[in-house]
Sequence to fold (325 residues):
Amino acid sequence: MLVDRFDRLISYLRISVTDRCNFRCVYCMPAEGIAVSPRSELLSFEEITRVASVGAELGLRKIRLTGGEPTVRRDLPQLVEMLASIRGIEEVAMTTNAALLDELAAPLKDAGMSRLNISLDTLDRDKAARIARRDEWDRVQRGIEAAQREGFGLKFNAVVMRGWNDDELGNLVSFAHSCGAPMRFIEWMPMGLTGQTDRNQTVSWREMLGHLQTRFDLEPEAPTGADPAKMWRCQRTGARIGFISSMSDHFCATCNRMRLTAQGELRPCLHQNAEVDVRRLLRGGASDDELAGAFREAAGLKWAGHRMNDIIPLYSSKDMVSIGG
Ligand code: SF4
Fold:
């Protein structure tokens, strides 16, 4: 079992398969993008699968593929098949902007992927183009339809930014509900080179809840394990809403996550600048025990929680796009 210094069981690995993305979202990376790594520095499918297999021996049960945008990595269904066949892994899921799902939904489903979190920050086409700095509206809509067609378990995620999309919360809930999925609102978080540290951009979950209660008669759902989202349900419609409150009311005490970057670093926490290099081990002929040692080292480094609310706040020096959220 992989347990950190605070007795938190690490059972969920978020794997970034690329630092490339077909969007340039304002809350994720600078407009000019970032300097992406040469392909030779990205882990191969075999290397990713080996790390995940060692992790499964240590008790990892769930894998989520992230990026950048994971669907821009060529032959992604091949990797999904490799990961889904690892003994002990119960779920392979993915977070995506859905722009390439029209082509990929069916092969990903066939390969063993079960759940999708789709990033949907607005229902306004022009605003979507401003947030993503790309106009991929039609492809995103077709991608969402394809995900439904293939019967994926779906959730929609929106990063809520004051003055950008905090006026659309109710409509987003209704849209997600019409797709049979919960809508989850993520508090905006300062990270990396996006250079934005204006905490006023953050709309707290309580503020969002207050706003939504003017339209929905909401009741809280019982918390479930390490799920970061605080879930609420509309009594009248059954619509489900989640709040991921990293800034105003973090959930670090029950964190079960570890991350693997596309370049092969194990990162114990999204907002902690600590990493253990497993690519060097993999390409240096390391044994599975040595890789297991790297997992334990990373777990041993993990903070009790992020320190973005400290008197002198500490932020991730890396952008979201380089870690995968
Ligand atoms: S900030 Fe770090 S410790 Fe807290 S929930 Fe996120 S990954 Fe876990």
Notes: The pocket of iron/sulfur cluster is lined by residues 250-252, 255, 257, 269-271, 305-306 (CB under 6 Å). The radius of gyration is 19 Å.
